[in-house]
Write a structure and sequence with these properties.
By secondary structure, the chain is of the alpha/beta class. It has a single domain, classed as Vaccinia Virus protein VP39 (Rossmann fold). The chain is built from eight helices and seven strands; from the N terminus they run ααααβαβαββαβαββ. Helix 3 packs parallel to helix 6 and helix 4 runs parallel beside helix 5. The radius of gyration is 18 Å and the shape is globular. The relative contact order is 0.16.
Length: 265
């Protein structure tokens, strides 16, 4: 099966502002993340795994929608593009409850794996039937070592992924900036790295020390990857529920892993 622009989900999630305002305290309590320790946040997500989808449905959480829209429109709908094949290999870094997997499956992708630090969130993701059996891994990205079976190995046919995606993970206490190097490890040469990120996290003056921009620039300068595109959108349109769940500008970034140079005698 080929991916086409016709497979993009039609309706972008829209916040139910009235509901969220009435339940603002619940959202504020949910937003109590640790800005330093991802392991503490994994436990926090474990607590909210069964409530996460309902809360984010009402909040109009749209990062998965935009990542899917971008991968299809900018890459997958191009004739003969590696991501135009429904069976291309995708890895969802920080898959959570599988919301990105659901959108990717709607678009026609059928070969999706995932990693996440919350075991309870993974259980919810697995129950949705979007991810390949036995291909959701529990680990803290940038802290725990990647399983050898998902790391690209040129000596093994079929090794590696055609694209790695990360939805709403570039935040303090979530993914450290070393996550980009980890993503490159699982990508095949010429594979794509796509992630959503708030504009303030791409600004050294407001990124709370995460230095995402610095790490991205470092990898580009080192020749590990190239910048491809950036697509802007707005998160939580119309909401004002505190620093993490209020309307804010964001974008989907696309990078491409360098291709391997042919060996010379």
């Amino acid at each position: 099966m080929r991916i086409s622009s016709n497979t993009i989900p039609e309706d972008e999630p829209i916040p139910d502002c009235e509901h969220c305002t009435k339940n603002q305290l619940a959202y504020i309590v949910y937003d109590q993340f640790d800005n330093i320790d991802p392991s503490k946040n994994a436990k926090h997500y474990n607590t909210y795994a069964q409530k996460y989808d309902a809360m984010h449905d009402k909040a109009g959480f749209n990062d998965p929608y935009w990542l899917t829209k971008v991968i299809v429109e900018r890459l997958g709908s191009q004739p003969n593009h590696p991501l135009s094949h429904s069976a291309c290999r995708l890895m969802d870094f920080g898959c959570g409850t599988g919301r990105l997997g659901v959108e990717l499956k709607k678009a026609g992708y059928v070969n999706i794996s995932g990693v996440d630090g919350s075991t309870e969130m993974i259980n919810v993701a697995y129950s949705k039937g979007c991810y390949q059996a036995e291909h959701i891994y529990s680990l803290l990205v940038g802290i725990d070592a990647l399983p050898s079976e998902i790391v690209y190995d040129a000596s093994k046919p079929g090794s590696g992924f055609d694209a790695v995606l990360a939805s709403a993970t570039m935040l303090p206490g979530h993914f450290p900036n070393s996550c980009y190097s980890e993503m490159l490890k699982v990508l095949r040469p010429g594979g794509y790295l796509l992630f959503s990120i708030r504009d303030n996290m791409m600004d050294p003056d407001t990124d709370e020390g995460c230095n995402f921009v610095g790490k991205l620039e470092e990898l580009v300068v080192a020749g590990e990857m190239i910048f491809v595109d950036s697509v802007a959108y707005a998160k939580y349109r119309g909401l004002d529920l505190g620093p993490c769940m209020s309307e804010t500008p964001a974008s989907v970034k696309i990078y491409k892993k360098k291709t391997e140079k042919p060996m010379t005698n």
